[in-house]
Amino acid sequence: LKYAGNESTIRVRAVQDRNTVSIVVQDDGPGIPTEEREKVMTRFYRGDRSRTLPGNGLGLPIVTSISHLHAGTFELEDACPGLRARIVLPRVRP
Question: Do 83 and 12 form a contact (C-beta atoms < 8 A)?
Answer without folding.
Answer: no
